[in-house]
Structure formats: C-alpha cells, structure tokens
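We treat protein structure as text, and this decision shapes the records that our systems exchange. The tokens are whole numbers drawn from a learned vocabulary of local backbone shapes. Below, we set out a record of this kind in full and without editing:
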Amino acid sequence: MSDDLASLLGSAAEACTLPDYAGGSILNLPAEIGRLLGVHDGWEAPPLRGGVGVDARAVRRVALVLIDGLGWNRLRRHVSEDPAWGRMVARFGGAELTVTSVAPATTTVATTVLLSNGAPPVRTGILGYSQRLPGVGRVADMLYWRAVAEPGRAAQDLEEMGVAPETFLPTPSLFQTLARGGVASEAFLPRAIRRSPLSRLQFRGAAPRGAASLEDALRQLGELFAHRPDIRFAYAYHSELDTVSHLHGPEGEAWTTTFMRIQATLEGWLASLPAAARDGTLVLITADHGLVETPPDQRRHLTSLRSSIPLLAGPPGGEPRHVHLYARKGATRALLDAARGALGDAFVVLDGHRALDAGLYGGPRPRHPESEARVGDVVVVALGGATLWADVPAALRGMHGALDEREMRVPLVALPLSAQR
C-alpha cells in the first residue's frame, strides 16, 4: 500500500486490501499473457511479478478462463473441506497463485482492465458500475449502456445519445494488442451478452462466439485448439457463480453446489482434450473479484445523508459498496463532512480527487481526460458487510466493489496441459 493511500484511508487502512498494480493484480495479466506468447510491446503495465511459474518456451498458446465472482478466500475455505480442486491442479502440474482485483472490484471495471492492454481504470475511464459522463451530462450505467433515470429525465440508451461502445475507450484491447504482435485470438461468451454494448467495447479486435453454457464454451475452445494451430490465445467467461453469490450469498450451500459443478466441468474438459489440443497449451483460470455477505441489518440508504441531499448534483454513481457522490459546485467539502458524520465507521469516506491522485484507481498518470469528472467528488467505500443504496435495496445477500480482502483477492491458477500426470 502506498503511503498516500494509507494516509487517505486512515484508520481503515488495516481493513483494506489495495490493488497491487505494480505486478500482483489482474491488471498485470494482459502483459503476462503477452510475455508468454512472445508479444512484448504495447502493454501499459508490467507483467506479473514472478510470472505464473511456467517456462514461456514451453507455451505455444494460452487459454484464459474467467470465473466471475470466484474469490481466493472463499476458494481456500472450500478446498480445505473438499480437495478435488487441489487434485485437479496437481494432475496438470499446475501452480496456484493469488492476485488482487482492481478498484472498484466490480465486473464492469475489472473485466475491462483484464481485456485491455494493461490500462488501469484511471486510464480506461471506466471507474464504476455507473458513473457520470460529462459529455452527455448524465450518470450512466456502464453495464447496460444507458443513462440512469433521474427527476424529470427518463432512462435513455447511450447509443441513442451518440455514445458508441466501439470508440469509448482510449486504449486498445488485449486482442488488438496481441494481434499487433502476430497472435490470433478467439473468445467465447454466453450468447445473451455476446453482442452487448459492454462486450462490443471490450472485445474490439475479436468476434466472440456464443456459448450456451460453460460446457459448450469449453467444448468449442477445445475444438479450436485441436484444429486451429494459428489461434494462440482464447478467452472464455462464465457468470453463474457471481449470480448465485449475489442472490444467495457467497457462504452457503448454493455457492458450494455451483462451484463443485464448475470444478467438475473444468476437470472433465481438461481430461478429455486430445493430445493436439494439450500440446503447448497453458490454461489460466482467474476471476474479476470475490464477494462478501451483505446482511440486511448492515444496509444503509442515502436518506441517512438527509442533511447533505441538497449538496448532491444528481444521482450517485458506482454501486452499493463503492459509491460515487457528485457534489454541487463548491459543496465538495460540505458533502464530505456530512457523509463522514452520517455513515460512521461502517464506511470510509474519501475525497474522490485525492483518491485519484493517490493511485486508488491506478496511475495516477497518465489518466483518462474525463477521470476527474467521472469519479465521485466524494467516494464512499464500504467496510465489513455494509452497503449504501440510492433507492430500495435489492434482496441481494452478496455484493462486491469495495476493498475487503474477500472481494479483492482472486485466484490465478496456471495449468500447463503438456504436464498432465
């Protein structure tokens, strides 16, 4: 943790796990994939500190499997009770590492970073699940690509407002950067999101194939590696564990049942791959974030900031564990003081522009030209299982987005398939 960030967080610093942007986060994975595949130029961040424990000379292609919502701490607790995951890793001579997510630890931000050229959130300009876009004068939901409703203004599609996903980012994608180094790629996504605005933003330089399930995505990926030696990188995404963790919490039986099914699917697929698909193939398994239990009695509402509501310039951005509050002109200090007074020790309340400068979102330089306007003037980060809602709280038992170790630390498993035992 940098001295600036530690000072900014104050007494909350000990309860926080900060992104390790210098070489120990998912930010560093794009450059690590490039290093393994011989593409050394075009990355904005260094590769992983210490690598993934695999000799790059033995790697001809890489498959990256992202399991949305798989936190390292929760995985370790499961493995202590059921050793099947560890047996799978050992079978392929694999290595189990851990890296951090980014801030905020949320899918929209983290997967954009993971599928970039190593650019952090402060460079991509996606600093939250939702955020203010000064060009359209609205707070926008970046996952569903729409300006959020507010008094006197209905929700509105961003593309109808002239904001095109394909040109939104100032940095190239992972696929574009690999292609410039002579590496061809493929990607597999659930059919429902294959052509969503966020996918079109993230997968520039690729044309993702639709998959009906994790099994279907992995089957297609295996066939690709067996019959297309020119494809040297492939990506597959699975969202079920995140969905289950939101609905039922990350600690219960639903999580365990879902994860065991994912693990069995992965192991069955790995074992069934033909020699042509295994030879020289490295499979990397990671996640964008973990989750924490968010009990109803730890939920707060923006009405708890009654005295500061007149200081707000519009609806908040972010999400319930990492909230961006936008102040009326000249009211940032008053809003900051009001939020600190109202939220007590369940949240750490930060000056958003100081958070940018301290490197919470990467950098701090270079940065997106609108980063100062997009981040909240006041940023409210949850501690423990707390959440802060702008409207009626959803019945979600698990959330993410803040700096708790359970949501910030994710696994990185490296399986060199040629080493199968």
Notes: The CA atoms of residues 65 and 168 lie 25 Å apart.
